[in-house]
Amino acid sequence: MLLADEAQHFVRAPDWTWYILFYFFLAGLSGGSYVIATLFRLRGGRSDEPAARLGYYVAFLALLLCPILLTLDLGKPLRFWHMMWNTTPGDAGLTLKYWSPMSVGVWALVVFGAFATVSFVEALVRDQKIRLPLARRAVRLLDGTLGKVVITVGAVFGLFIAGYTGVLLAVSNQPVWSDTWALGGLFLASGLSGSAALLLFLLRYRPEAEASADTLIISERLYALLELALIVVFVLTLIPAGALGIAFGFPWILLWLVAFAGLAPGIGGLLTARLAVTGEGVAVPVHSGSVATSVATSRPKSVATSVAIPGLVLLGVLALRAAVIFSIQ
């Protein structure tokens, strides 16, 4: 049995570089930010709209770098388009290999990019950064049901992009990666946690979105809990395969310690305050007449806290991916 397992993993390591690491990292933040922004908008609260637009900005800007990093990692970057276009003489045309996770992932990235672009431009128009009459008329088409359908479908692709990088690893023939089924969910939970932390940090530059701070704090806690649970599943699935030492051996254990440190704010918040938020720049509803508005009842305790905590979470998200990617190489 041992010999069979060793033969199963007798493959060459992919020799991935930091290009792929940051592609996985930014893809998770892009997809996660789009999902969180969509949840804010579907909730329908006027006070959540600034945070929703912020999420769409982050989703688009993070996604911009993904194709660049992905193509730079190829041996011949200029041939990237061959993954979408069949160059076989007499059979030229678009190609989608549904049985290939790489092909499906590339097309999902393209489709999600279209949704992220539409939402980005829409946010610019609604923030009056773009004042073209034609753009305003186009955005008005997205005010009702059509707009909700568009962002919901976009969020589905965002979930796929945030988690598919883990699935891509799991369907490979590499030790650790192919020994577990938890990587897709783990990368998705990690991407959502990092996205909530990043948006929470960026609220300092968009004061009108501070009304959504408490929701982001609670969301980050819940995503961190889900991430921790999936790390436990990841560990338990590696034990029977005898691959635990590969993933958590030295020096990779140091990266895992950083990943666990990134979970500390969320898990610590659940243990101490559960789903309550106090003294962290929380916004609560204040009613004036028949119109509900939101104001921030307090600022973060310090600049160090408001910057260091999201920074630690994001560093943990990056370290988790680095540990998983590089430990088998």
Fill in the keyword field for this structure.
mainly alpha; two-stranded antiparallel ribbon; 329 residues; globular; 4 strands; Formate dehydrogenase/DMSO reductase fold; two-stranded antiparallel sheet
Structural overview:
Helices cover 66% and strands 5% of the residues. The strands form two sheets. Strands 1-2 form a two-stranded antiparallel sheet. It has a two-stranded antiparallel sheet with strand order 3-4. Residues 1-7 and 280-300 have low confidence and may be disordered. The two termini are 24 Å apart. α2 (18-43) packs across α11, α3 packs antiparallel against α4 and α4 (101-126) packs antiparallel against α6 (145-170). The radius of gyration is 21 Å and the shape is globular. The chain has a single domain (2-326), classed as Formate dehydrogenase/DMSO reductase domain (Formate dehydrogenase/DMSO reductase fold, Up-down Bundle). The protein has eleven helices and four strands. It is mainly α and 329 residues long.
